[in-house]
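Extended Data, panel c. Modelled sequence:
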Amino acid sequence: MGVVNIILSALDAILALAIIVLFLVQEGNDRGIGVVAGSNSSNDSYYSKIKGKSREMQLKRWTVICSVLFAIISIVLYLSLARNW
């Protein structure tokens, strides 16, 4: 196993752990029976205006970033192992 494969494997493991931690820290999107009944909260609230800056949105953004990086590194790692780089 070459140096590149070791580095990619370590990055893959770190990103996997980061995804797990970020996923567990996030709050659920459960809104109860209101989703089925069709009740909708007001879109003019202060929370809806700062939604992109909230902690929840930052966690979701970092989860997506880590997931994409994990997928890319996993593919590169597979190719490097298959071709013995």
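The helical segments are 3-25, 34-37, 46-49, 55-83. This feature is highlighted in the accompanying rendering.
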